[in-house]
Design a protein that fits this description.
The protein is α+β, with helices and mostly antiparallel strands and 245 residues long. The chain folds into two domains: 166 residues, Rossmann fold (3-Layer(aba) Sandwich); 65 residues, Immunoglobulin-like. 20% of the residues lie in helices and 25% in strands. Strand 10 and strand 11 form a beta hairpin. Helix 3 packs across helix 4. The longest helix is centred in the middle third of the chain and has 18 residues. The termini are far apart.
């Protein structure tokens, strides 16, 4: 996994092969994804080499590929980056893969480096979220993880969507409702929720992610009629919604 050169040079990969549909391992990963499996894969450790791109099967569009950051949330120099050969965003997210605390084969605690450590951390997050929300689809789980990440609205070819947040991803799946308002696409929107008699339900500091005008926010737990106030530097809107028992 992630290898680009082989004993038989005729089997070496080129960047053009990293389209998610060419190498056998990427094709296999794509088949697994189509069967309902969330495939989590290391982006690779070639960031400092002349290759520097992600490897297979992290190049597959449906694979959740994971880069590496250090304990200060800075990108690890070895973390491979994208995009894939078709221009798809890769890696999708990052997690700690430098100075990662691990258990060695001799049962001692030490630190290690590599996307082989950031990927299992993320796989554990996926397992916990999906275990808590077993009726969610793979696409919904991955989407919530991406939306929970700290660079979701400004992704790049090293961090992807950034560092995901378990609680936020869980909450997006657990208790969110969607609105279509025709608001500016790909904008950070804040919101305040009020009861119909004007009582504020939160402090208004929660960030509301907006992608293609689909707005998700955490709904109140109590049934009733509510007013949501959406706002940003250049946008403001009030809307009414109902929460049923």
């Amino acid at each position: 996994l992630g290898y680009t050169t082989f004993d038989d040079a005729l089997q070496n990969h080129t960047y053009e092969d990293m389209d998610g549909e060419t190498t056998p391992i990427s094709i296999g990963a794509g088949i697994a994804c189509s069967k309902g499996i969330i495939v989590v894969n290391s982006a690779g450790n070639s960031g400092s080499s002349s290759w520097h791109f992600i490897g297979a099967p992290a190049d597959n569009f449906d694979v959740l590929s994971v880069g590496a950051v250090d304990e200060n949330e800075e990108i690890a120099s070895f973390s491979s980056y994208g995009p894939n050969a078709d221009g798809a965003l890769k890696p999708n997210v990052v997690a700690q893969g430098k100075n990662t605390v691990i258990i060695s084969s001799s049962d001692t605690v030490r630190t290690g480096n590599g996307t082989s450590f950031s990927s299992p951390i993320t796989a554990g997050m996926v397992a916990c979220i999906w275990g808590a929300q077993p009726n969610q689809t793979p696409a919904a789980v991955k989407g919530a993880i991406y939306k929970s990440a700290d660079r979701y609205l400004n992704p790049d070819d090293q961090f992807g969507y950034g560092i995901p947040n378990y609680y936020n991803a869980y909450q997006l799946l657990n208790s969110s409702i969607n609105l279509s308002q025709g608001v500016p696409i790909n904008t950070l929107i804040e919101y305040k929720v009020y009861t119909i008699d004007g009582k504020e339900m939160n402090n208004g500091k929660t960030i509301l992610y907006n992608e293609d005008s689909a707005l998700s926010f955490i709904k109140p737990k109590t049934a009733g009629v509510y007013i949501i106030h959406l706002f940003s530097d250049a946008f403001e809107l009030n809307n009414k919604f109902i929460v049923l028992e």
